[in-house]
Amino acid sequence: MRNVYLDYSATTPVKDEVLQEMLPYFTEKYGNPSSLYDIGLESKEAINRAREQVAALINAKPSEIYFTGCGTEADNWAVFGTAEKLRAKGNHIITTRVEHHAMLHSCAALEKDGFAVTYLDIDKDGLIDLKQLEEAITDKTILISIMLVNNEIGTIEPIKEAAAIARKHQILFHTDAVQALGNVPIDVKELGVDMLSVSAHKIYGPKGVGALYIRKGVQINNYMHGGAQENRRRAGTENVPGIVGFGKAAEIALRDLDKHIEHSKKLRDHLRERILAEIPDTFVNGTMEHRHPGNLNVTFEYIEGEAILLLLNQLGICVSTGSACSSASLEPSHVLSALGVPVEMIHGTVRFTVGDMTTMEDIDYVADSLKMVVQRLREISSVNSAKGW
Ligand SMILES: *Cc1c(COP(=O)(O)O)cnc(C)c1O
Q: Ligand 1 centroid to 72 CA: how many Å?
């Protein structure tokens, strides 16, 4: 049996080049970066090298990169740091209905604390409406946060245009770029964003390390309080091996970006073509035009996505329904709901994400397996008689 991992949006394996770079920082190079003797300074230098590598991937200055404990922390920092800093100015935040829970649940917490939040809709392609964004702005709006790439349907939102609207109204703009990093070119200057969240484990780096880009001059409150790390803005002894790994993963992502995109697209499109041609009553959610190169989100009508997932798992194939974060709950995906997919069809939806280790043979094995699994499930499904299977 093959093992095929098609859930790169949930997490990625750490590349060997990345692991090798990290290993010495667990053992002989264990110094605390705040210590003034040689092994401390060596750790400090390693962090600053990583800062340059992550900055280069998004065209930021190294001094604008603040390492965090994960992408979730970066999102929380952007939201709560802005809300606390600008509370006297206003209590209104604009985001979208399709954000990651790191954003949605942070906003929900602020709503309990006297803030008002507007959740923008998406159209049938999965894209926000810039006119609705501009109309939602009030004189109390202090933050607009819109994700760059959606983690379930892979759609790429018009962040440059949205950030321009925010700037025109002098409102801070944040984007969750965790799914975008390493999958689409990112240039913070070109996008015109004030803050941007990223995470290492989605780009073949380790889990438990992320970063928030904060444009020079942007003032928000600190989220973690304690020591003077990260230029006094994010306390806590740095995860040195993790940060070193993030830096190396960012360097590789920048070096191989074109190759990665081309490889992902080729495999993703082959999977899409085979599914649509060979399995009846299936459709793809979200536009194929502005989309993460490795993402495919497919609804298989009349069956449960969970059943597909479990049978594929028995065949050594890893996929997900919805996102990794919501798959433990039976709530239908908020992203597919916002897209207008009827609830019974949401339950028949599977997310496939391909990545650098995926091969064409893997894709053909998955397509063959899917055909078999879907047919088997439809034979036992209660609607089969109606559909004549
Ligand atoms: C994975 C993910 C996060 C959370 O990042 P962690 O490092 O896992 O906390 C946030 N936003 C999006 C869009 C993600 O895909």
A: 6
